[in-house]
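**Sequence, structure tokens**
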Amino acid sequence: MGKVAVKLKVMPESPEVDLDELQDRLEKSLPEGAKIKGFERDDVAFGLTALLPTVIVPDDSGGSEAVEEAFSGVEDVESVAVESQGRL
């Protein structure tokens, strides 16, 4: 069974969202078998900063869909989009 690395772009609802707390909530929401390899931050505009987590998921688990759904349900998340993905 292979693994897939997925870089996601998680947009907070507003610039006032505490990104450290949001990062913790994202880590706690991960589905079984997925793990976060690291986070980057991207200044978007008008004080808004996106989180860019790289998530490792098993190849047979349907890719990033479960992670995208989990992250979308986290408080203060406006949107989740796949930036890139590749097999390891």
Remarks:
- The domain at 3-87 is CATH 3.30.70.60 (Alpha-Beta Plaits).
